[in-house]
Write the structure tokens for this entry.
Amino acid sequence: MADELLDFFKTNPTYFLSTVDEDGNPQVRPFATFAKLDGAYYIQTGRTKSVATQIAAHPRIAICGCSQDGSQWVRLEADAVDTHDASLEQRILDEYPELGSMYKAGDGNTAAIRLDNVSATLYSFTDAPRTLA
């Protein structure tokens, strides 16, 4: 069975992740890792980055991704949970080998972030919004 949400982010790999910093200000940055493992969605980052600190303090995140032609976009909200699981870290890195020079599973820095309570909607200029998760 196809997974439209996963397919969207694999076809349109750059998306924008929004968190809240220690002063309550929104922070948005581009991301490009999105995986589905054992039925759950994951993103990957480094624990030394401010995004990891922000997720730990305020785990509710938002993601927005746009199709390459700009005709569709996905808005996603979720609770982000650092799994601290080296096997999951490795599985994500296997999908994104270009990160191998910066991250190694179990290195204490690599984080496999599971997305719980996902709500995702696909939008376009021509069709009604559609729930993907």
